[in-house]
C-alpha cells in the first residue's frame, strides 16, 4: 500500500492554472498533489552573445525553492551568495528538456527564459517544473504569434516529465516525498508528446534494480506522461 493510498500507476491530482501572473508573457501555476510550482516565461528580443547571428533562438531556465517550501526553512541561495549544485543541475535539465520541444529556427533570434519557483514541495519538483514550464513557454510563444512577430508557434512538441521508482518492492508512478525518501530506486523521465525520450535519470539507493524493473518504470512513466500531456493540452486550450 502506498502512503497516499494511490494505485501503483496513478498520478497525484494535477491542475494547471494559466495566467497566474500579470506581467510575464506566459505563466501558469502547476499543482501535482502537494507540490506547487509557479512557472513564468519571459521573452527577450536578443539571444546570448555567443549565439548572435546564428539564426537560432534560445530557451533557458532558472529554478528556485522558496524558504518554506519544505518542512523546515531553507536559506535563500541569494543570501548564501551562490547557487547549489542541485539547483544548477535542475536548471540545466529544465532548459534541455524545453529546448527538445522547440523549433529554434522558427523561433528567430530571441531568448525565452522560463522561471520555475517552487512554492510548496512534496517530491517531483523538477518534473512539475518541466511540465508546467512547457505550458508557460508555449503561451509566451503564442503571444508572439498573436502579435504578428512570428508566423507560427515554434514550440512544436509537447514535453512533460514524471518521477517513478521502486517503493516497498513494487514499481510506482509519481513519487511523493514520503515515497521518494524511502524508495529503493527512483527515476525522473522526460518525454515528448509523441513518445520520444528526452532524458532518463535513474539511480538505486542501496540494492540494484533489474532490467525488467527499468522497463516497468519506463512503461509507467510513458503512461503518466500521456496524462500530463493531456493536461497541458487542456490548459493551453482555455
Automatic annotation (TrEMBL):
Pfam families in alphabetical order: RNase_PH (PF01138), RNase_PH_C (PF03725)
Catalytic activity line of the entry: tRNA(n+1) + phosphate = tRNA(n) + a ribonucleoside 5'-diphosphate
UniProt entry keywords in alphabetical sequence: Nucleotidyltransferase, RNA-binding, rRNA processing, Transferase, tRNA processing, tRNA-binding
Top-level EC class: transferase
Keyword tRNA processing: yes
EC id: 2.7.7.56
SUPFAM superfamilies in UniProt: Ribonuclease PH domain 2-like, Ribosomal protein S5 domain 2-like
InterPro entries, sorted: ExoRNase_PH_dom1, ExoRNase_PH_dom2, ExoRNase_PH_dom2_sf, PNPase/RNase_PH_dom_sf, Ribosomal_Su5_D2-typ_SF, RNase_PH, RNase_PH_bac-type, RNase_PH_CS
Listed GO biological process terms: rRNA 3'-end processing; rRNA catabolic process; tRNA processing
Residues annotated for phosphate binding in this entry: 86, 124-126
Domain Exoribonuclease phosphorolytic: residue ranges: 11-139, 159-223
One GO MF term: 3'-5'-RNA exonuclease activity
Domain of life: Bacteria
Subunit note: Homohexameric ring arranged as a trimer of dimers.
Function: Phosphorolytic 3'-5' exoribonuclease that plays an important role in tRNA 3'-end maturation. Removes nucleotide residues following the 3'-CCA terminus of tRNAs; can also add nucleotides to the ends of RNA molecules by using nucleoside diphosphates as substrates, but this may not be physiologically important. Probably plays a role in initiation of 16S rRNA degradation (leading to ribosome degradation) during starvation.
Protein family: Belongs to the RNase PH family.
Protein name: Ribonuclease PH
Origin species: Albimonas donghaensis
Lineage: Bacteria, Pseudomonadati, Pseudomonadota, Alphaproteobacteria, Rhodobacterales
Underlying gene: rph
Amino acid at each position: 500500500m502506498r502512503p497516499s493510498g494511490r494505485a501503483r500507476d496513478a498520478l497525484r491530482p494535477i491542475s494547471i492554472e494559466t495566467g497566474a501572473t500579470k506581467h510575464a508573457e506566459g505563466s501558469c501555476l502547476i499543482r501535482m498533489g502537494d507540490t506547487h510550482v509557479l512557472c513564468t516565461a519571459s521573452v527577450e528580443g536578443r539571444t546570448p552573445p555567443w549565439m548572435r547571428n546564428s539564426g537560432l533562438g534560445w530557451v533557458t531556465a532558472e529554478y528556485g525553492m522558496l524558504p518554506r517550501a519544505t518542512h523546515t526553512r531553507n536559506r535563500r541561495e541569494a543570501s548564501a551568495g551562490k547557487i547549489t549544485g542541485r539547483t544548477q543541475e535542475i536548471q540545466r535539465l529544465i532548459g534541455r528538456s524545453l529546448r527538445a520541444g522547440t523549433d529554434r529556427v522558427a523561433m528567430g533570434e530571441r531568448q525565452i527564459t522560463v522561471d520555475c519557483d517552487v512554492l510548496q514541495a512534496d517530491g517531483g519538483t523538477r518534473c512539475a517544473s518541466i511540465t508546467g514550464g512547457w505550458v508557460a513557454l508555449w503561451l509566451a510563444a503564442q503571444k508572439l504569434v498573436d502579435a504578428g512577430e512570428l508566423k507560427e508557434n515554434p514550440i512544436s512538441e509537447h514535453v512533460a516529465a514524471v518521477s517513478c521508482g521502486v517503493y516497498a518492492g513494487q514499481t510506482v508512478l509519481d513519487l511523493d516525498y514520503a515515497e521518494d525518501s524511502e524508495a529503493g530506486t527512483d527515476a525522473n523521465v522526460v518525454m515528448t508528446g509523441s513518445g520520444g525520450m528526452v532524458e532518463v535519470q535513474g539511480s538505486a539507493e542501496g540494492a540494484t534494480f533489474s532490467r525488467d524493473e527499468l522497463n516497468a518504470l519506463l512503461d509507467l512513466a510513458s503512461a503518466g506522461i500521456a496524462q500530463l500531456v493531456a493536461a497541458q493540452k487542456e490548459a493551453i486550450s482555455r
